[in-house]
Design a protein that fits this description.
This protein is of the alpha+beta class. It is built from five helices and nine strands.
Amino acid sequence: MTAKTIVKAGLLGTLLAGLATQAAWAFPANMATSGATNPPVGHYEFCKTMPRECRQNASTGQPGVLTREGWKTLLQVNYDVNEAVTPMTDKDIYGVEERWAYPDTVGDCEDYVLLKRKKLIEDGFSPSDLLITVVLQPNGDGHAVLTVRTDRGDFVLDNMRNKVLLWSDTEYTFLKRQSTENAGRWVKLQDGRAVAVGTVRTQ
């Protein structure tokens, strides 16, 4: 058994054990939203150049069922993209402050997210359950992660770690994410830990 297989098996066991005690958690398994908000500037510009990535979703309104195979796929995609892409700022790559794009070998946080979302759609996940999300790090910096909506809760794929966590188990404050109905629209999140912030850059 490889080290990666051991890690994946351990994470699966942790997930199943955690789900058994879900009722005792302080935060709900799925995030609550509270109305429309403006998209990040980088995503707005991305949608202008890639309109097919920002269209209406065929959503039932209910999150997808998380199977064992689906969980393994989440772990694999998160790990593979994190290993394949080297973190680098848009300023260093493109000479501009903010540009969202699919990465080849380098990218910043939202580029990781775009690639993970693309790969999971190719693996059969519904676009309405794969939501780019803006969060606030404990140091006050903005960051982008991918939220995967499931019947077991909202899980976070992050370029800063290979472990896939339930949203409420992360150290982040969740600010806003894509709408489940339309990939080009965004909604505010009710975190319970949120603070008053202005426009947050996802660098």
